[in-house]
Amino acid sequence: MDFPERMKSSWIVILLLALPLVLSAQDTNDVPVAAADRTTATQEKHLQPILAALHLTNEVAVESVRLAWSKYFSALNTWHALHDAEVKTLWNNFNQARSAKDAMAADSALVKIDSAYAGLQPQHAAFLTSLATVLSPAQVETVKDVLTVNKVGVTYAVYLQIFPHLTEAQKAVVLAKLKDAREQAMDAGSMAEKSAFFKKYKIEIEDVYLTAQGYDPKQARQDFAKRQKAGGGK
To answer: What are the residue boundaries of the structural domains of the chain, listed by start?
Structure first.
């Protein structure tokens, strides 16, 4: 049976009015999928340098590292979504206190930062434990270095140039403290914050430890700059 022309027109109008609603619903359903795809892509982007540095040939080990990283990456994303604003304020407080030479306020900010990050430690420990089931201790160290752009090695090498007369025992302490910085920097949400954690430990190394060992860090840096300018290396 044919519809009257007026009825046909009415149905066309109804369909046209409903179309934007259908498209809108479809777009809304696509949003979580797109966000999930971006998260997966970012996760994979950060995984690839880890796998490249490890040179794994065992597919079981590769998949184990991938799974461990996936869980850790998810935990980091969740934690930082909840705490980044708080942590950013605390780092700003720390920097302002350092600029004002207010050691007490700076230390207070660092204590609060450590306290905030304590909530992420179970996931941090679980990640390292999972890696240790398929990687050697040296390989786990490699993963840590990749996640912190080798700041331990680079910073330690510079310290040996700035303080060329460190004893072996002093070198061991400096290296241990830099590795402590790396442990915290792994959980940081940005490169700037990773650097901030290393700054925290460099202050401890220079202003506390090496000063107590009889060194003058400020003078040592000035002497190092002069040697560099003169082309004398160490």
So the answer is: 148-234
